[in-house]
Amino acid sequence: MGEELGAKVYDLASVSIEDPGEFDLLGFGSGIYYRKHHRALLDFVNELPEMSDKKAFVFSTSGFRKVPLLNPLHKHLKEKLKEKKVELLDEFSCRGYDTYGPLKLIGGMWESHPDELDLEQAKQFAQKIKKQIEYS
Ligand SMILES: Cc1cc2nc3c(=O)[nH]c(=O)nc-3n(C[C@H](O)[C@H](O)[C@H](O)COP(=O)(O)O)c2cc1C
Fold first, then answer.
1. How remote is the CA of residue 45 from the centroid of ligand 1, in Å?
2. What are phi and psi of 94, to 5 degrees?
3. CA-based, 20 to 30 A from 101: which of 3, 19, 68, 135?
4. CA atoms within a 13 Å half-sphere pointing along the CA-CB vector of 131
């Protein structure tokens, strides 16, 4: 996604709350833990100022598929971004190697993911986002 958008990619451990100021578009993503994005990401977004001039997208890898209402996965992060008045453009999720709890005993699930197809779909997602910001 970063390559496709020509964007800077940051690890949360090395980004500061002040940095988002210089960007028009922000992407937020992590693995899913207990049906939410990683706590560190949710805490980071919590500390951000209101950003009504910014557009955003969210993404994740998870063991289980994102299903609206039943298994929303992105709900908490999206709610937090809404509080920050960010305009959410779209969201992307794919499977990631999952070794949660008892899955460890059987060697985990989705070991080869994200795979080539996931990466291609992530690329297409980024192209769609790019078009959206070009035409806005
Ligand atoms: C402690 C733990 C909790 C998890 N909880 C969920 C969950 O609630 N739903 C889900 O679909 N996947 C869950 N997973 C699977 C992760 O979302 C998946 O492995 C993801 O690809 C991890 O990404 P990361 O390695 O980049 O952090 C969990 C994994 C772990 C280790």
1. 19
2. -150, 170
3. 68
4. 6
Q: How far is the CA of 100 from the centre of ligand 1 (A)?
A: 6
At the top level of CATH, the class of 2-134 is alpha beta
Instruction: Please say if the pLDDT value at position 101 is more than 90.
Output: no
Instruction: Please list, in sequence order, all residues whose beta carbon lies within 8 angstroms of the beta carbon of residue 66, skipping any fewer than 6 positions away.
Output: 60, 72, 73, 74, 91, 93
Give the separation between CA 82 and CA 98, rounded to whole angstroms.
29
Contact by Cβ (8 Å): 56, 26: yes
pLDDT single digits (tens) 27-74: 999 999 999 999 999 999 999 999 999 999 999 999 988 777 777 899
